[in-house]
Design a protein that fits this description.
Layout: E1 2-7, H1 20-31, E2 33-37, H2 43-59, H3 69-86, E3 90-94
Parallel strand pairs: 1-2, 1-3
Length: 98
C-alpha cells in the first residue's frame, strides 16, 4: 500500500511544527511505503506572506496562513500534478488550525 504524505512543513526536519510532522512521517514509514510531498515556496508566495503579516500588525488581526488564497492555490496545483503521476492509495495531509 502506498501512502502519500504532505504538509506545509518539512516532515524531514525534527524542529518543524514541534516535530509533529517528523514523528508522524517516521511512524508511518516504518510500516508502509510512503510518498513524501513537500514544496518550497516560491519568492512571490513568501512576499505575500510578509505583506499579510504586516497587514495583521496594522489592523491588529490574526488570520492563519492556510487561508491565504495565493498559498492554497499554489500548493494545491503542485500537489495535484504529483498526485496524478504517483497515485498513492491513501493520501494524508498534515494540516493544523490556528
Amino acid at each position: 500500500m502506498k501512502i502519500g504524505f504532505a504538509g506545509r512543513w518539512s516532515s524531514l526536519e525534527k524542529n518543524a511544527w514541534s516535530g509533529t510532522y517528523f514523528y508522524a512521517y517516521q511512524a508511518i514509514k516504518k510500516n508502509f511505503d510512503v510518498q513524501y510531498f513537500h514544496y518550497k515556496w516560491p519568492w512571490y508566495i513568501r512576499e505575500q506572506l510578509i505583506f499579510h503579516k504586516q497587514f495583521q500588525k496594522l489592523h491588529n488581526r490574526k488570520v492563519a496562513v492556510e487561508f491565504l488564497q495565493g498559498y492554497a492555490r499554489w500548493f494545491s496545483k503542485q500537489l495535484e500534478k504529483e498526485l496524478r503521476i504517483m497515485k498513492p492509495d491513501i493520501y494524508l495531509y498534515r494540516g493544523h488550525r490556528s
